[in-house]
Amino acid sequence: MKYYLLALSVLSIPVQGAPSEDLVQSCLAATARVGVSLTNIETREIYLQDNYKPGYQAEYFLFRGMEIGYARSRRGDALLYRGMLYPLQRAKTLPQTRSKGRPVIQVALSEWSLIGDGRKQFLCVSGQFDGIGRSGSFQKARYGYLLETSKKGGLFFVDGLVD
User: Fold this and answer.
1) CB 111 within 8 A of CB 127
2) Which of 7, 33, 69, 152 has its CA 20 to 30 A from that of 55?
3) DSSP of 58-122
4) In this predicted model, what pLDDT tens digit does every residue of 85-102 receive, in sequence order?
5) Using an 8 Å Cβ cutoff, are 75 and 89 in contact?
6) Closest CA relative to residue 29, chosen from 157, 129, 149, 143
7) Could you tell me the pTM of the whole model?
């Protein structure tokens, strides 16, 4: 019985530094909710660089002079923001997440934005799961990576259904 109560209490602990539910839902839907600001980032010109950082092949674009995108490596893939790599395997999974795996970010197909709620700002990358979601009711199944844009910001992963 004690183990059961401990497990329930651990499951209900929020992830430290996690974005609010409004930020998460805004990211997944790529639409700002009340109290959330959202700036869409266009991905018109995409650059490919084989040795962006040692061992990483990068696919990125420029936004306000910042390099933003995705990098692949045998060591694991990473989100690229302002020239720094944030390994996806280190992303904290938010409690409402249903899937176990982490989808590959497809730079040209994903939706990129800066979202904030007045206290924190995040780079949001959202999209539909590869192979499903392009049409029909599966369009509601989406994933999102949220990277807090402060110097030591955390990276978070979430998935879910959007309306």
Assistant:
1) yes
2) 152
3) EEEEEETTEEEEEEE-TT--EEEETTEEEEGGGPEEPTT---SS-PPP-TTTSEEEEEE-SS-EE
4) 999 999 999 998 888 778
5) no
6) 143
7) 0.85
